[in-house]
Amino acid sequence: MKAPPLPLLLTWAALLALLAMTLGLAYVPMPGPMNVVLALGISVAKALLVLALFMKLFRAPTLTRAAAAAGLFWLAILFALSATDYLTRKVEHVGDLPAPTGSEHQPGNR
Amino acid sequence: MTTATVTGKSDEPVVATKNYLTEEGVTLRSWLLTKDHKRIAILYTLSITFFFFVGGLAATLIRLNLVTPAGIFTPDIYNRLFTLHGIVMVWFFLIPSIPNTMGNFLIPLMIGAKDLAFPRLNLLSWYLYVGAGFLALFAILIGGVDTGWTFYTPFSSLYSNGYVVLALAAVFAVGFSSILTGLNFIVTTHRMRAPGMTWYRLPVFVWSNYATSVIMVLATPVLAITLMLVAVERLLRVGIFDPALGGDPLLFQHLFWFYSHPAVYIMILPGFGVISEIVPCFARKPLFGYKFVVWSSITIAIVGFFVWAHHMFVAGISLYAGLVFSLLSYVIAVPSAIKVFNWTATLHKGWISFDAPMLYALGFIGLFTIGGLTGLFVANLAFDVHVTDTYFVVAHFHYIMVGGMVSAYFGGLHYWWPKVTGRLYPEWWARIAALLIFFGFNLTFFPQFILGYLGMERRYYSYPPEFQVWNIFSSAGASVLAIGYALPFFYLGWSLFRGKRAGSNPWAATGLEWQTSSPPPAHNFDKTPTVTRPPYQYRPEPEPQDV
Amino acid sequence: MSDAPVIPRPEPQYATAEQQAETASFGMWVFLATEVLFFGGMLLAYTWLRATYPDGVAEAGRHTKIVIGSVNTLVLLTSSFTMAWAVHAAEHGRRKALTRLLAVTAFLGLLFLGLKGYEYHKEWTEHLVPGLNFHEDSVHAQTIELFYFLYFLLTGIHGIHVTIGIGLIAVMAVRARRGAFNSHYYTPVEVTGLYWHFVDIVWIFLYPLIYLVGRSGP
């Protein structure tokens, strides 16, 4: 069996390096949401590598790229417009009732 | 494998000797295993007609119950009736109605293709529909569901005592049927057009179905996964939609309406397509502002995704979100209005003939306009607080779905009947039915605007006695409507055997589908057509873009 | 069906084999767009959970099996690589290499499923399966249960996709061995590859969302 083509081999190596990086960084305490942002940023990088080189998206016809973009665009609609509610919704504190913390109900063994 | 070359094309008004109805054999097996888009369209037509009558029966019983303020059925039976009506009409009639019947039949013909891109997928889509239909019927027969078609949590996941999981499974499955159809249409429109059939030469019907398909493919999966979450929550008592378990019921509503509002456009966009075919033909004029009509469809398909939370104004979303969604909901009125203006401008100075398809189309334009304008009322935050969950909303969406989409469905059915069957329907009866439907519809649903404005809540089996007079109007209208819907069943059935032979183009219409024989041969065209002109060339000498 | 390395005739609705090939590939991309939204609904639910109960989700994340999860990521990334390599071999008409690489890809898929199954088994013994045997004493018990509810749904549905992918790849391997493909005709391999890469991309996002949550915490 002939050796794999170099671009594919390099992509694979880059994917594994990114995997090691994201795993390591996850254990480093960072301020605020930095851990998530970095982890998802690395995931985006990995996904782009797979899309571009394994799935050959960058060499694909415009139509194919449009189909790929459509899925992501509509996903963005779902998240962005839901956010208009979730980011601005206030949970009112009525009387002594605390905001839900998830601790009120002990599910027990079911 | 089967490249049977069809020979002997004849333009005489006799039935083509070789047509899709007989060419592949007439056995049941040849129909159930067919890959011909035209045969699959027939299979779909038969199935959705069945479900139309099931849903219609439930509607009849609902209107019967509401004749008296105290109601006739028990509250529990009433709940099951309106749920049955909603689920069947939305998912088993309206969503597949025009795309899966006329879309399936006509898109390949209109673009000059031999079939859809993926014929096996098309057949699979029908089988999914039928399987889902059986599941739904089974759920209905063993006791039904009382959640309403919206399956709101935590009622559906915790309290309801109906067969919710079965119904959810049925809707899940029918969703995949619609995804497969949408995928097929998108790919077909992009890849299977005949030489010379550029995008701006496509009939608006194809554009509308393309826009519909985009919604089907991108919204339906969200519904599928949401319903699955509800089913698991109901079965295992663990889930993210139940506040008692730490979940958020509004999350369900967001996910549900992310599909179900765009689904409203799945239900109406194909209707726009049908009307855009009928109006130019019976006004003998090119469609006014073709590109505007086309791009308003695409705009609706996209902007339709930006407005879903206007169903949730009083559900507890933030005021800011309410404002955003209210404003966005106004935006979507613009492309819808553009279409109405364009159809009316097409009529202007046209040579209008009032054949049955045109009567339906004119009815559509009027009723859709009322439905659309009242949509602006309920998009308004303050007014919506007053009419949420009242009959005002019920009347509003029935003007769109029934006054609009069902009129378009019947209009299209009459318009293309000669092409599909090779026979003409009896014109006089068809006009009578069209008029009955128009007047019956208005008598049924206009009183509901008044009832809703006065404060009558939807989904209750009883109501205060002062509302009775309007309810009696409404129920009386429903009887007229029922006769209107039953009539075509008889005279169209009659025409199958006794109707006059249609010939290939009884309306003298443009469009590739009229250039092949009626009924068309299995492979649609003896020779792949080459297109050289834009659509709707209804004048011998098209004048330069005037007016 | 076919015995010599010939290009099968296109199906009757297509004018040319090229049209058929490009249509199949485009069809798969449209299907993948559908899939994005299918997973998207669950991801929105996940995002809501994590934003609403950050501490509970962090604690739940520390219950996940980081070693198995990371090894599985390695396995799936590698399988994507061998799949891409297989398509390359098909492009150049190297039948033997194609068959072997497809077999390796399918094997890696099976390995992924095996490890996943072992992980599920461990979670069962640790009483982490919501609705069936969940038991947790933490103050965040409810959130942990919700997290695991989404975990099982996301990984379960992903697992179904992996299973379908393995099936498709196995069929391709058998067909490749029989010589069904050549440098002019290998669309089915290419389309299967697209699907497999997509399944890999889903996992690329699931990995940090499931396994790397709360690792930097106490």
In CATH terms, what is the architecture of chain B? Up-down Bundle
CATH superfamily of chain B: Cytochrome c oxidase-like, subunit I domain
**Quick check: average pLDDT of chain B?**
92
Biggest β-sheet strands, sense, barrel of chain A: none
| Overall average residue pLDDT of chain A | 85
**Which geometry of chain B do the CA atoms define?**
globular
Subcellular location (chain C): Cell membrane; Membrane
GO molecular function (chain C): cytochrome-c oxidase activity
Transmembrane segments (chain C): 26-46, 66-85, 97-115, 148-174, 194-214
Membrane topology (chain C): Multi-pass membrane protein
Short description:
The complex is a heterotrimer of chains A (110), B (547) and C (218). By secondary structure, chain B is an all-alpha fold. Chain B has helices at 28-32, 37-65, 75-111, 119-141, 155-159, 164-191, 204-236, 249-283, 290-303, 319-331, 333-347, 356-379, 381-387, 391-421, 427-454, 468-498.
Supply database-style keywords.
heterotrimer, B: 547 residues, mainly alpha, Cytochrome C Oxidase, Chain A, 16 helices, globular, disordered N terminus, disordered C terminus, C: 218 residues, Four Helix Bundle (Hemerythrin (Met), subunit A), 6 helices, 0% strand, elongated, respiratory chain (chain B)
Describe the overall structure.
Chain A: It is found in: Cell membrane. The complex is a heterotrimer of chains A (110), B (547) and C (218). Chain A has two domains: 1-55; 61-89. With 110 residues, chain A is mainly alpha-helical. The model of chain A is unreliable at 102-110 (pLDDT under 50). Chain A has helices at 6-26, 34-54, 62-86. Chain A contains three helices and no strands. Chain B has helices at 28-32, 37-65, 75-111, 119-141, 155-159, 164-191, 204-236, 249-283, 290-303, 319-331, 333-347, 356-379, 381-387, 391-421, 427-454, 468-498. Chain B is mainly α and 547 residues long. Chain B has one domain (32-514): Cytochrome c oxidase-like, subunit I domain (Cytochrome C Oxidase, Chain A), CATH 1.20.210.10. The N and C termini of chain B lie far apart (52 Å). With 218 residues, chain C is mostly helical. Helix content of chain C is 76%, strand content 0%. Chain C has helices at residues 17-52, 54-63, 66-91, 95-125, 141-177, 187-211. Classes of the chains: A mainly alpha (110), B mainly alpha (547), C mainly alpha (218). Chains in contact: A-B, A-C, B-C.
